[in-house]
Specification:
The protein has about 260 residues and is α/β, with parallel strands linked by helices. About 40% of the residues lie in helices and about 25% in strands. It has 2 domains: about 90 residues, ATPase, nucleotide binding domain (Nucleotidyltransferase, domain 5); about 150 residues, ATPase, nucleotide binding domain (Nucleotidyltransferase, domain 5), CATH 3.30.420. Homodimer.
């Protein structure tokens, strides 16, 4: 079994892959204070929940955008699973080329998303990841990332709204029943939702306007499911895209 780990700014998401099947996914809040023992204990519990033990783990691959967490998390993998994990980064073959001004600045999560999308759906593609930041990356038919866009995630924008205003409360990020809000909380939810949805659609439309070929729009990320059924501009929502990408990258570099 392969354990794929996506270390993001908000959550660490683990996927247990048995062959091509994703047999379990789990989330841990990203905190730099967690020790390797704490991470190891949580991973052991998650394995048990899925009916596995550490002995069942053949290898581990990690895509991380949070360097300060890597030392303790990597140490937990070595200590509790007896594996030195593969890290998505320089020197690892991904099957994806990057034709950008600074290829080394491409986040490991975006790279894995694009690899997963290209292997699963072919190119050309616009890959959208709804995370702490929202990223758009264009992958052409040859598997080359040629353009990208980064903006705030909806939860990040919402936190700024209630964090910088004295009387606005924290609200759940959800699709409102109506834009005709009648209270403070529903007004915030409607404003955040429709403002963000409009931005997504306008961004996709601009990619279509500037790229002279048809492409598939593939979305992923935890908050993507909030929007997937409210726009015709997203063709596919795939919550497991990053795990598919890491599995494909692992196969290219299997030890």
């Amino acid at each position: 079994m392969l354990v794929a780990v996506d270390i993001g700014n908000t959550n660490i998401v683990l996927g247990f892959l048995d062959g091509d099947d994703i047999v379990g996914t789990y989330r841990i809040t990203t905190r730099s204070e967690h020790t390797s023992d704490e991470y190891g204990a949580m991973i052991g519990q998650f394995l048990a929940f899925s009916g596995f033990s550490p002995a069942d783990v053949d290898d581990v691959i990690i895509a991380s955008v949070v360097p300060k967490v890597m030392h303790s998390f990597r140490a937990s993998i070595v200590k509790f699973l007896g594996v030195d994990p593969m890290i998505v980064g320089p020197g690892v073959r991904t099957g994806i080329n990057i034709r950008m001004d600074d290829p080394k600045s491409m986040g490991a999560d975006c790279l894995a998303d694009c690899a997963g999308a290209y292997v699963t759906y072919g190119g050309p593609l616009l890959v959208i990841d709804f995370g702490t930041a929202t990223t758009f990356n264009y992958v052409d038919r040859t598997g080359t990332i040629t353009a990208g866009l980064i903006t705030t995630g909806i939860r990040t924008a919402a936190a700024a709204l209630w964090g910088q205003t004295a009387q606005l409360p924290e609200v759940e990020i959800t699709r409102p029943r109506s834009i005709l809000a009648t209270g403070t909380k529903t007004a915030m939810q409607a404003g955040l939702y429709y403002n963000f949805l409009g931005g997504i659609e306008r961004t996709i439309e601009q990619f279509h306007a500037e790229i002279d070929e048809d492409f598939t729009v593939v979305a992923t990320g935890g908050l993507g499911r909030v929007f997937e059924n409210d726009t015709d501009l997203i063709d596919v929502y795939d919550p497991d895209l990053i795990f598919k990408g890491m599995a494909a990258i692992y196969r290219r570099n299997a030890r």
